[in-house]
């Protein structure tokens, strides 16, 4: 089984509150990520187990994937200890991710994930 | 996970977990409780009375943008009878403030409020770009903070308003409490938690978002689709404040009530008589008439250093205190060595650009004779240096 035939899901990812500056100064991105993440959480994101092993892609995996594949600079302002840096708000389909299981939320094709920094001056 | 219904209306789907209470609430209930809590903060502290002219310190950032929207909403909903203005300071930072001022100009249209923009250039003759090109990026936040505070008061005076409201939120206040603890600045610790401050003849300043969490302010802006600007200042941000903020966010992640708890801790500190006795008596700046605890106000002192160009960094450094809080009431210390250095700076101002005379709003203005007497009486100048800043400058 080759990597190209691995199932994938497509997501809309948005950055705000200054975070977009770390992602090519683009607020809105459409990304396609592997539908399954290596297990356990925190393992190397470049390794996708063949045959549907691992765990379903969740937001923790998305954060690691964004850091490895989309982020352009200053990774420490986005990711810390396998999750977003404290002070970054996350919404899943316009709902606070704290109501959706945070990093353990299992992503579905077409989900919209928004990351907003609260750390920039008011 | 099944969708949860709102803890307040039990009908709509919850979209937010409140950091303060842990409640899961829907969008409409969130708007309502957020606005109502700000209204309660305003009424419990009796911040305004009908007919007040109130300027909203507007930077184009999230807090002041949400504040302008909420102040307008509450003024209409509860008939506060306030006349609201937007007051913005243009520090003269190309690529930062010019962009954020565009946001404020859009807010002026969206909220239908008169906007006054006062620039460092017109007031001091110096833009931050020019200041940084002269002094570098080391102390520029101090200049900016001192200049902004006085500029806001002068802008308010020009608008004839009696009151400035700023977007400082609960996170900002908790962060300032932490910084004052870490600096040992007990005198400022209790004061930084006050919702409203007013000096002898200064314009009132208050913080209607004192109990509003940053998370909720940002969520409010997101769900209301408010238009705000969010880019870091291009000149070095205050690194110390940044560390305090990161620490606070770590605490909040572990226990969301940490922010309110820290504010309450700050409020619980009592400033003893011994510490109060060392606080400096207020007077007016002998050059520009602005409130000052020394012969010259901080802005005039810093401006003099800039105008001289050659003022050694150590002398400028001696005069540098924290940017965020004026008048300066920290624990104080006097030394003869510093007195000598200050005397060297306080020579004739004839050939320098200076700041126009400060006018307090008519309602608060002291009789002119008093002011002239203060100007003519030669008051002995004293150097009061914050011991903490001395150590950081050493
Ligand atoms: Zn509800
Ligand atoms: Zn002055």
TrEMBL record, chain A:
Listed pathway(s): tRNA modification; 5-methoxycarbonylmethyl-2-thiouridine-tRNA biosynthesis
Keyword Magnesium appears in the UniProt entry: no
InterPro entries: Beta-grasp_dom_sf, Mopterin_synth/thiamin_S_b, Urm1
PTM section of the record: C-terminal thiocarboxylation occurs in 2 steps, it is first acyl-adenylated (-COAMP) via the hesA/moeB/thiF part of UBA4, then thiocarboxylated (-COSH) via the rhodanese domain of UBA4.
Top-level taxon of origin: Eukaryota
Covalent cross-link Glycyl lysine isopeptide (Gly-Lys) (interchain with K-? in acceptor proteins) as placed by the record, residue numbers: 122
Keywords (A to Z) from UniProt: Cytoplasm, Isopeptide bond, tRNA processing, Ubl conjugation pathway
Subcellular location: Cytoplasm
One Pfam family here: Urm1
Biological process according to GO: protein urmylation; tRNA thio-modification; tRNA wobble uridine modification
A GO CC term attached to the entry: cytosol
CDD domains found in the cross-reference section: Ubl_Urm1
Family as reported in the entry's similarity comment: Belongs to the URM1 family.
Role played: Acts as a sulfur carrier required for 2-thiolation of mcm(5)S(2)U at tRNA wobble positions of cytosolic tRNA(Lys), tRNA(Glu) and tRNA(Gln). Serves as sulfur donor in tRNA 2-thiolation reaction by being thiocarboxylated (-COSH) at its C-terminus by the MOCS3 homolog UBA4. The sulfur is then transferred to tRNA to form 2-thiolation of mcm(5)S(2)U. Prior mcm(5) tRNA modification by the elongator complex is required for 2-thiolation. Also acts as a ubiquitin-like protein (UBL) that is covalently conjugated via an isopeptide bond to lysine residues of target proteins such as AHP1.
Protein's UniProt name: Ubiquitin-related modifier 1
Organism classification: Eukaryota, Fungi, Dikarya, Basidiomycota, Agaricomycotina
TrEMBL record, chain B:
Source superkingdom: Eukaryota
Metabolic or biological pathway: tRNA modification; 5-methoxycarbonylmethyl-2-thiouridine-tRNA biosynthesis
Function: Plays a central role in 2-thiolation of mcm(5)S(2)U at tRNA wobble positions of tRNA(Lys), tRNA(Glu) and tRNA(Gln). Directly binds tRNAs and probably acts by catalyzing adenylation of tRNAs, an intermediate required for 2-thiolation. It is unclear whether it acts as a sulfurtransferase that transfers sulfur from thiocarboxylated URM1 onto the uridine of tRNAs at wobble position. Prior mcm(5) tRNA modification by the elongator complex is required for 2-thiolation. May also be involved in protein urmylation.
Protein name: Cytoplasmic tRNA 2-thiolation protein 1
Cited Pfam families: ATP_bind_3 (PF01171), zn-ribbon_14 (PF16503)
EC number(s) reported in the record: 2.7.7.-
Matching HAMAP family: CTU1 (MF_03053)
Domain tRNA(Ile)-lysidine/2-thiocytidine synthase N-terminal: 53-232
Family per record: Belongs to the TtcA family. CTU1/NCS6/ATPBD3 subfamily.
């Amino acid at each position: 089984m080759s990597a190209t035939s691995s199932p994938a899901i497509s997501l809309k990812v948005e950055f705000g509150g200054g975070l977009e500056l770390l992602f090519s100064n683009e607020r809105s991105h459409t990304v396609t990520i592997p539908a399954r993440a290596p297990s356990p959480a925190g393992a190397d994101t470049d390794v996708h187990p063949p045959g549907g092993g691992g765990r379903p892609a969740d937001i923790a995996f998305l954060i690691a994937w964004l850091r490895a594949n989309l982020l352009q600079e200053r990774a420490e302002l986005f990711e810390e200890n396998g999750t977003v840096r404290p002070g970054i708000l996350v919404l899943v389909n316009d709902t606070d991710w704290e109501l959706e299981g945070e990093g353990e939320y299992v992503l579905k094709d077409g989900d919209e994930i928004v990351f907003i920094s609260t750390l920039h001056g008011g | 996970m099944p969708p949860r219904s709102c803890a307040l209306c039990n009908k709509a789907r919850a979209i937010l977990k409140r950091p303060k209470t842990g409640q899961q609430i829907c969008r409409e209930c969130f708007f309502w409780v957020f606005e109502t809590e700000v209204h309660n903060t305003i009424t419990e502290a009796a911040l305004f009375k009908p007919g007040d002219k109130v300027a909203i310190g507007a930077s184009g950032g999230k807090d002041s943008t949400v504040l302008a929207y909420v102040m307008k909403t509450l003024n209409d909903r509860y008939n506060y009878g306030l006349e609201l203005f937007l007051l913005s300071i243009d520090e003269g930072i190309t690529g930062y403030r010019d962009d954020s001022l565009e946001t404020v100009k859009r807010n002026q249209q969206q909220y239908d409020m008169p906007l006054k923009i006062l620039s460092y250039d017109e007031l001091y003759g110096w833009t931050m770009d020019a200041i940084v090109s002269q002094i570098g990026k080391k102390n520029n936040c101090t200049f900016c903070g001192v200049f902004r505070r006085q500029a806001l008061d002068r802008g308010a005076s020009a608008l004839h308003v009696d009151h400035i409201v700023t977007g400082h939120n609960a996170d900002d206040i908790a962060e300032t409490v932490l910084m004052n603890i870490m600096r040992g600045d007990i005198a400022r610790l209790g004061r930084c938690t006050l919702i409203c401050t007013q000096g002898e003849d200064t314009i009132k300043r208050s913080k209607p978002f004192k109990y509003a969490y940053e998370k909720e302010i940002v969520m409010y802006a997101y769900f209301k689709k408010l238009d705000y600007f969010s880019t870091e200042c291009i000149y070095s941000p205050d690194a110390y404040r940044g560390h305090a903020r990161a620490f606070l966010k770590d605490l909040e992640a572990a226990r969301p009530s940490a922010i309110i708890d820290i504010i309450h801790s700050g409020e619980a500190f009592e400033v003893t008589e011994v510490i109060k006795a060392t606080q400096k008596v207020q007077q007016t700046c002998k050059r520009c008439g602005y409130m000052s605890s020394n012969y010259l106000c901080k802005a005039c002192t810093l401006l003099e250093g800039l105008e001289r160009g050659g003022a050694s960094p150590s002398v400028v450094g001696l005069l540098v205190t924290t940017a965020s809080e004026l008048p300066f009431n920290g624990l104080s210390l006097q030394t003869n060595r510093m007195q000598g250095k200050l005397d060297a700076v306080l020579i004739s101002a004839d050939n320098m650009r200076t700041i126009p005379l400060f006018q307090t709003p008519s309602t608060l203005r002291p009789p002119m004779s008093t002011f002239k007497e203060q100007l003519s009486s030669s008051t002995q100048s004293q150097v009061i240096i914050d011991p903490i800043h001395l150590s950081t400058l050493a």
